Amino acid sequence: xxxxxxxxxxxxxxLDQLKLGLVxxxxxxxxxxxxxxxxxxxxxxxxxxxPLERFTVVNGSFFMALFFAISAYLLPPSYERKGPRRFLVDxxxxxxxxxxxxxxxIVPALMFLHHHTYGDFPEFSFAHLWFLQHLLVYxxxxxxxxxxxxxxxxxxxxxxxxxxxxxxFTVVIGLGTFAIPIKWPVDTWIGILEFIQxxxxxxxxxxxxxxxxxxxxxxxxxxxxTRSVGYTCLAIGAGLxxxxxxxxxxxxxxxxxxxxxxxxxxxSMVESTMCVTLCVGIVVVFRERLNRPGAARWGAASFTVYxxxxxxxxxxxxxxxxxxxxxxxxxxxxGAVALPVSFVLAAGLRRVPYLRAWVGA
Length: 361
Prior knowledge:
Layout: H1 14-31, H2 50-60, H3 63-73, H4 75-118, H5 130-149, H6 163-179, E1 190-192, E2 196-198, H7 200-219, H8 221-224, H9 227-251, H10 262-289, H11 296-319, H12 327-351
Antiparallel strand pairs: 1-2
Helix pairs in contact: 1-3, 1-10, 1-11, 1-12, 2-9, 3-7, 4-5, 4-11, 6-7, 6-10, 9-10, 11-12
C-alpha cells in the first residue's frame, strides 16, 4: 500500500527509502518502551534508563505525522486511476483487511504474551493498529470530499514552499495541539465513536500533516521545496531534537502535558516546531541524498513490518526480561534482533498466497 506510484516517476524513489527508515524508527521506538518512557507497555516491572525516554519523546514528535503525510501524498493518484468506488474498495482491502488480521491475530498474541508472563489480561486495545484505523477514516473522508467538489486535482509546475508558509502552518498546528490537551492531556487515549482509538493530543499534528501531504501532491511541493528551505528546517528541527536528547529533564520543567497554562502552550509550540521542521528537512535530505532505486522491495514490505513487528518486539523483551543487563543493553539487543526478524517475517507472510491481502501485500 505504500508503493510509490506517481506521475513524477523516478524522482520519488527516495520515498521508499524514507518509508523504510521510518518503520525502522517505529520498531526501535517500541523496543525502547519498557526501558525508558513511563508509558504503559506489554512488558513492565523493568529497570528504566531516562535517556531512552528522551529518544522516544523526540522520535514521537514527528515520525507518525510524517507517515501520515506520505500516505496522503499517495492518495490522489490512486483516486484518479480508480474513481471513488474502486478507490474505497481498494482502501478497505489494503487497510481494512490488515486491520482485521491485526485484531484477530496480532492483538490476541500480545494479550496472550502478557497473560502468560503476568497472569492477567491487559485492557483490550488496538495497540499500534490505531494507525490503520486513522488511515482508513482519512481515506473515506478524502473520497467524500472529492465526490462533493467534483474536481480533479492536476499536478502543476513545482510551487515553492516558502519559509513563511511553513512558519504559519507550524503556528496553526501548535495552537491546535495546545487547545486539545486542555481537555485531554498528552498520553490520554479515547475511543472515538467507541471504536476508533485515538490520542487526541496528536490528532492536530497527524491530521495536519495528512492535509499537508494532499497539498504537497496538488502543488508538487516535494519537488518545489528548495534545498535552502529544507536544510534550514532540518537545522531547526535537529537543533531542537539534540537539545531534548541532551537536556529533556531540565527543559521539561517548562512544559506541561495539558491544561490552559503557559507550560502546556510552550510544549505544544516546541513539539509542533520540531515535528514540522523535521518532516520538511528529512524529506529534502532523502530527496537530495537518497533518491536512488534499491529499497522499493523493502519499502513496500514496510507496511507489513508495521503490522507484525510488535509481537516480535514484545516476545524478545520478555525473553530478556530477567537478563542481568543494563536497560540500554537490553534495548540495543531487542532492537538489533527485532528488526531483521520483523522484516524476514513480513517478507515470508507476503509470499503466502492466502495471506498476502491480509498483511498489506
